[in-house]
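Hi Q.,

Before the meeting this afternoon, I wanted you to have the 6-O-phosphono-beta-D-fructofuranose prediction in hand. No need to reply - just skim if you have a minute. The sequence and ligand are here:
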Amino acid sequence: MKKIAVFTSGGDSPGMNACIRAVVRTAIYRGLDVYGIYRGYEGMIEGDIKKLQSHSVSNIVQRGGTMLKSARSAEFRTPEGRKKAYDNLVANGIEGLVAIGGDGTFTGAKLFFEEYGIPTVGCPGTIDNDIFGTDYTIGFDTAVNTALEAIDKIRDTAAAHDRVFFVEVMGRDAGFIAVESGIGGGAEFVMVPENKSNLDEIVKSFKNLRKSKSSSIIVVAEGEEEGSAETVMKKVKELVKDKDREFKVTTLGHIQRGGNPTARDRVLASRCGMAAVEGLIAGKQNCMAGVMNQEVVYTSFADCIGKTKPLIPDHLKLIEILSI
Ligand code: F6P
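Predicted structure with the ligand bound:
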């Protein structure tokens, strides 16, 4: 293998740049030529591919976003789109790929590998932490800290006015951000897609809490079955029937996707990026490089996207016990 390419795809996450840097520099260290594909699968289809040097990735390890840009490509879902992408890789002499992204990225990479056989190793880049085969994903730690900072600030004003706040955090299919920011921020409740929420239970314990507390924070993951934080707030307000209690909603949204990556995310991103290139050189393909129990592990794309990573069971109990 002489030439490889790296790209970022799907929702960006803080630490993607640190991962790109690790891929580029490990490849050069190992004597490979390395190319950057811009805007993920879109750029692969359009041939937006440029050779990268060691200095191309200077001064990015600390930056959020992705210097290669990112996109979600509808065309890559079609056989014609993937054929164009393959032709562009062949035209550039690319023999291996590093795909940085989440489950959508790996679903595309798996299909592409099955059709065209270009060895591909993935790196888990998503704030949601919902990828099987790695304890944490690149960007999750930064996103949790962003959410936590916001929750701390909301707590100040909630306490000052004796209000109840419903804070919506990201997590379309998974509650990792909600749970960890909830534990760190001392939330009274956390609502996540993995668990069926019982609103009556929440209201009951909520009423009990009122005896000792004047303000509360309820963290709602975006994918919560009962609906958005706004919807949940309205339902709870209706059930609580307390005219004197003020209920407020804050949706954190895309601020969770940006910002300088934390040290944890930079280290994880660097390890995964290096492991992806080392893996390609060693003949790994159709798999992701992640870190579990401090060790680099390679997990097939099929398992990464097919298996569900559960929440840590103790975490929900922790919230219940610590919120009394
Ligand atoms: O990166 C994953 C994620 O943050 C989800 O939690 C969220 O639903 C989604 O991205 C939103 O991303 P976009 O606005 O880019 O479609």
